[in-house]
Automatic annotation (TrEMBL):
Organism domain of life: Bacteria
Stretches assigned to the Cation-transporting P-type ATPase N-terminal domain: 7-70
EC number: 7.2.2.10
Protein name, per record: P-type Ca(2+) transporter
Length: 858
């Protein structure tokens, strides 16, 4: 039997390194991290802008122009390429950096002992010689030798491929390795190598290839892009060939075809989607939700059920002991102090020895405290009855322990007292502990426990639980020297129980209400007692007269099919363990839900992985759950999930907005050219004009739409279905119709001007160009909402859009009125009457939309 004394409430075993030593070692050995080889630098990102097909086509066009002696054309096209690339670079660089910075934040941490104090640092700063503490669910930050441990099991599959966890012993020879995961137990470890010198470092090159992660929407858009390219190329070929057949110059028609292809293909779309996602991720971070996997941003918007832990997420995790039940009676504190009778003292001794927290009151200073709130609450209450943790630590030495976990719902220690006596102390869920006891501490001291006694204790437990108290029992027995692990928890004597309050978070009830309003079902999943869970559930509005509560033991009796059917009604699951969580997620998914599920402990990882959105806790979560999750709640708070869902919906909405804008405009442009060629008209727009529209009118406003503030009904709609495509709810048709309208409008202006000016092509083209730009710029405001007319949206709420539109308008006027540009863009200055025609034609569809936009709610 290994001799352990791991009780790192306050006093870690030794002092560990000093900060000065650590700093020196850090300088010598470098950061404890694996060096990434394939990180994209700014130059690579810039160079990649030229790799895209459209840019290559444009470069080809510039070369052709140069070859044909059209130097001005060639230079303008080159300027457009450079501008386009710079824009693309800025977008991508910013998106990449901001996501990288966020990833840094979710980097694993380490618990080190330095200068005798336990501190949490980023794993990056661990140095050889550091003393590390490892607990269940930690990712081991560096290679080290196990000094002390209890029940330490390590999953080394990353190194060995062997998925069964390996047991470690503290013989000084067992080692743990960077990147592996402790699945249970605790240990103290001294580090011997870090960074690239670790076993993981040696094989790091093989692990470098982390593929880029694309969201389903990004993948679908890439697919769509391919179809659009194919269609566009055919159309462009038709336009060019019919032009040449009509006798237009081949050079002009070649360039027209190329420019049209460039304008028509929404090559900027994936980039804008990425930027919109990156901005969304940043906004979520500001609201305390750290997104780890980009696809989560999209899925969040279609969440229909949020399954949340209770303690710390819906409640504050600020526990205070309110009541005791010892010797068949309830005991409440008098003037904040519990009586110090023998029975109370014995109960508190058991609960405080079997406890990893630390609490010490000081004269003239704040109390010193650390550890789990439930355990801390017991120590505080014990102090008032004269049982002090620091004294107990000197008196009792831990020789064996089974740490608390949510499956066993109890913690057990075997201790040796200074006087040589040995004891077992257990604390945990009352219903579980009672099953291990044959005696109890009654009014007359230790006595056998009859069936009636047990019933009395259970009903006292329920009374406390139904007033929302969290109840923990304690039991003990004296050992006759040796420890037999098999009988350690048998024949115990039940000592009593504490009831503690854990008030709901003040913002939780409001967040639950928002959930319900937005068609999302909040579900509470807790390890706590059914009655406690019901009381809190009702207080928060999760459990109502229409919904039900189910206990883990009842859940065990249901088949998967039965659970799937029942899951529609159940709002609270109580006394569940992590394996139940997995079944609950599966049942909800099978009944068609998009499930968000929270978790913190190591055993929660499978359920989190299975959920559509796995959510881990930033403060109390283990490394393993964080890594399995797609989002981390930095404040462990339920309302943060609801905020993240809202952001998810906003982002999706905004993506729909600019897709609507960009595709409608592109269809308009292609159609103008295509119809003109079918009608044997001279080309309405020259290549440079098309490229200008593509860059100035399409790009800037679309980006501004990507950061549009939300529609005010965003959290009053039903969740979007996961299966729904981006063009659902008639968006595809709307895009098509508007594209046709823009195309016909532009063409009509062109034809009318040709007629009125007796074929002054230059003037007619300038009018068509202005008309195309204006109809797009007025349309962009319509794109801000699918359900409200343009008159109902305050334009001032998106200043960026106004700036983008003003900028485009300014550039349009410049091209039309500054003589220098006349030669490049083949434009002329327009007169008043021409503007009247252009403006009225461009605004006609916007006016029509005011009357036709249907107010519709999902
Ligand atoms: P959640 O609501 O987040 O699931 P919970 O606190 O309700 O959290 P668990 O932490 O799994 O659920 O606790 C389940 C039960 O185990 C509690 O009702 C309590 O009786 C017991 N328990 C909790 N913490 C400890 C502890 N530190 N030591 C012993 N028993 C504990």
């Amino acid at each position: 039997m290994e001799n352990i004394n791991i009780n790192w409430g306050k006093e870690p075993l030794t002092k560990g390194l000093s900060e000065k030593e650590a700093l020196e070692k850090l300088k010598k050995h470098g950061f404890n991290e694996l060096i990434k080889k394939n990180k994209k630098g700014p130059i690579t990102i810039f160079a990649e802008q030229f790799k895209n097909l459209m840019t290559l086509v444009l470069i080809g066009a510039a070369l052709i122009s140069w070859f044909f002696g059209e130097r001005a054309d060639a230079i303008t096209i080159l300027a457009i390429i450079v501008l386009n690339s710079i824009l693309g670079f800025i977008q991508e660089f910013k998106a990449e950096r901001s996501i990288e910075a966020l990833m840094e934040l979710s980097a694993p941490g380490a618990k080190v002992v330095r200068e005798g104090k336990l501190s949490h640092i980023s794993a990056k700063y661990v140095v050889p010689g550091d003393l590390l503490l490892i607990e269940a669910g930690d990712r081991i930050p560096a290679d080290g030798i196990v000094l002390e441990c209890t029940g330490l099991m390590v999953d080394e599959s990353l190194l060995t491929g062997e998925s069964v966890p390996v047991e470690k012993k503290p013989r000084g020879s067992d080692r743990v390795f960077m990147g592996t995961i402790s699945t249970s137990g605790k240990a103290k470890v001294v580090t011997y190598s870090t960074g690239m010198n670790t076993e993981m470092g040696k094989i790091a090159n093989m692990l470098q290839e982390i593929p880029d992660e694309y969201t389903p929407l990004q993948r679908r858009l890439a697919q769509l892009g391919k179809y659009i390219v194919a269609i566009c190329l055919i159309i462009c070929a038709v336009v060019s060939i019919t032009g040449i057949m009509r006798g237009e110059e081949p050079y002009n028609m070649l360039l027209t075809g190329i420019s049209l292809a460039v304008a028509a293909i929404p090559e900027g779309l994936p980039a804008i989607v990425t930027v919109a996602l990156a901005i969304g991720v940043q906004r979520m971070y500001k609201r305390n939700a750290l997104v780890r996997k980009l696809p989560a941003v999209e899925t969040l918007g279609s969440t229909t059920v949020i399954c949340s832990d209770k303690t710390g997420t819906l409640t504050q995790n600020k526990m205070t002991v309110k009541k005791l039940y010892i010797g068949d009676k309830f005991i409440e504190p008098q003037k904040d102090r519990f009586p110090s009778s023998d029975a109370v003292k014995l109960f508190f001794t058991a609960s405080a020895v079997c406890n990893d927290a630390f609490y010490e009151e000081k004269l003239m200073a704040e109390p010193e405290s650390s550890g789990d709130p439930t355990e801390l609450a017991i120590l505080k209450a014990a102090w008032t009855a004269g049982i002090k943790k620091p004294n107990l630590d000197k008196e009792y030495k831990r020789i064996h322990e089974i740490p608390f976990d949510s499956d066993r719902k109890r913690m057990t220690v075997a201790v040796k007292r200074k006087n040589g006596e040995s004891y077992v102390f257990v604390k945990g869920a009352v219903d579980i502990i009672l099953g291990l006891c044959s005696k109890y501490y009654g009014p007359k001291g230790e006595q056998p426990m009859t069936y009636l006694d047990m019933k009395n204790i259970l009903s006292a437990n329920e009374r406390m639980a139904s007033s929302a108290l969290r109840v923990l029992g304690a039991a003990y027995k004296k050992l006759d020297g040796s420890i037999d692990k098999n009988s350690l928890e048998k024949d115990l004597i039940f000592l009593g129980m504490t009831g503690m309050i854990d008030p709901p978070r003040p913002e939780a009830a409001k967040a639950v209400e928002t959930c319900i309003m937005s068609g999302i079902r909040p579900v509470m999943i807790t390890g706590d007692h059914k009655m406690t869970a019901a009381a809190i559930g009702k207080e928060l509005g999760i459990l109502t007269s229409e919904s039900q509560i189910l206990a883990g033991s009842e859940l065990d009796k249901l088949s998967d099919k039965q659970l799937e059917k029942a899951s529609g009604r159940i709002a609270v699951y109580a006394r569940v363990s992590p394996k139940h969580k997995l079944r609950i997620v599966k049942a909800l998914k099978a009944s068609g839900h998009t499930v968000a599920m929270t978790g913190d402990g190591v055993n929660d990882a499978p359920a989190i992985k299975e959920a559509d959105i796995g959510i881990s806790m930033g403060i109390t979560g283990t490394d393993v759950t964080k890594e399995a999750s797609s989002m981390v709640l930095l404040d462990d708070n339920f309302s943060t999930i609801v905020a993240a869902v809202e952001e998810g919906r906003i982002i999706y909405d905004n993506i729909r907005k600019f897709i609507r804008y960009l595709l409608s405009c592109n269809i308009g442009e292609v159609l103008t050219m295509f119809l003109a060629s079918l009608l044997y008209m001279p080309v309405p727009l020259i290549p440079i004009q098309i490229l200008w529209v593509n860059l100035v009118t399409d790009g800037l406003p679309a980006m501004a739409l990507g950061i549009d503030p939300p529609d005010n009904d965003i959290m009053r709609r039903r969740p979007r279905s996961k299966k729904e495509g981006i063009f659902s709810e008639g968006l595809g048709l709307k895009i098509l119709m508007r594209g046709i309208a823009i195309g016909l409008g532009t063409l009509s202006v062109y034809a009318l001007m040709l007629y009125l000016t007796y074929n002054d092509i230059q003037r007619a083209r300038t009018c068509a160009f202005a008309s195309l730009v204006l109809s797009q710029l007025s349309f962009v405001f319509e794109c801000r909402s699918e359900h409200r007319s343009i008159l109902k949206i305050n334009p001032l709420t998106n200043i960026w859009l106004i700036l983008a539109v003003l900028c485009s308008l300014g550039l349009l006027l410049m091209v039309i009125y500054v003589p220098f540009f006349h030669t490049i863009f083949d434009t002329v200055a327009l007169r008043g009457i021409e503007w009247i025609i252009v403006v009225s034609m461009s605004l006609i569809w916007t006016i029509v939309s005011v009357f036709t936009t249907k107010k519709k709610r999902r």
